Automatic annotation (TrEMBL):
<protein>
    <recommendedName>
        <fullName>Cytochrome c oxidase polypeptide VIIA</fullName>
    </recommendedName>
</protein>
<keyword id="KW-0472">Membrane</keyword>
<keyword id="KW-0812">Transmembrane</keyword>
<keyword id="KW-0496">Mitochondrion</keyword>
<keyword id="KW-1133">Transmembrane helix</keyword>
<keyword id="KW-0999">Mitochondrion inner membrane</keyword>
<dbReference type="GO" id="GO:0004129">
    <property type="term" value="F:cytochrome-c oxidase activity"/>
</dbReference>
<feature type="transmembrane region" description="Helical">
    <location>
        <begin position="14"/>
        <end position="33"/>
    </location>
</feature>
<dbReference type="GO" id="GO:0006123">
    <property type="term" value="P:mitochondrial electron transport, cytochrome c to oxygen"/>
</dbReference>
<dbReference type="GO" id="GO:0005743">
    <property type="term" value="C:mitochondrial inner membrane"/>
</dbReference>
């Protein structure tokens, strides 16, 4: 009793893997950008603004 060949399995798995990778990659990118990067930029801008105010007060 031969086993029937499995056809289309690789193609289906490829699309699942590709869509999962893109979904997780985009989600991770947004999480990093809005969760970490923008907070660091805001903290950096606040530091330089404070530094500029100090420089103006000394002049």
């Amino acid at each position: 009793m031969p086993i029937a060949p499995i056809t289309g399995k690789l193609r289906k798995r490829f699309w699942v893997d590709l869509s999962t990778a893109l979904g997780l990659g985009i989600s991770g990118g947004y999480a990093y950008w809005y969760g970490i990067h923008l907070k660091q930029v805001q903290r950096q801008e606040a530091f330089y603004l404070k530094l500029e105010h100090q420089r103006l007060q000394q002049s």
